[in-house]
Amino acid sequence: MIFNDEKTIESVTRYSDLYEQALAENDVRALDAFFWDGPEVVRYGVGENLYGSDEIAAFRRARQGGSPSRKVLRRHVTCVDQSMAVVSLEFQRDGSARIGRQMQTWILTDNGWKILAAHVSIMADKPETETPAAL
């Protein structure tokens, strides 16, 4: 296993940049192409749980106006080997003070890097150490 191979990090970072561009432009065809095309792919969004590429594609087409504009605050790429990586990203939506988080598991396929699992969330106003979690 080659952990955090520099060329792999550069490649995944480039794909992550292209994903962010497609997200900003609401290019649903490009966004679909970034995800693994099959029932195994999962995307947990801020307000939805999507299983399989068909559900993810349907969500993108149903969302009015696409993803809210956002600024990437921080990105961290960790490569498990030369064919799998995790992209952890913090962002802030325009007009909001809250911080969002996105984690994507990318795998290298014969058709380039694809997202196999994704999770998007918006942070609570206060950490659970200050305000206990609701049951």
Automatic annotation (TrEMBL):
InterPro entries: AtzH-like, NTF2-like_dom_sf. Pfam families: AtzH-like. It comes from the Bacteria. NCBIfam families: HpxZ. This is Oxalurate catabolism protein HpxZ. The lineage of its organism: Bacteria, Pseudomonadati, Pseudomonadota, Alphaproteobacteria, Acetobacterales. The gene is hpxZ.
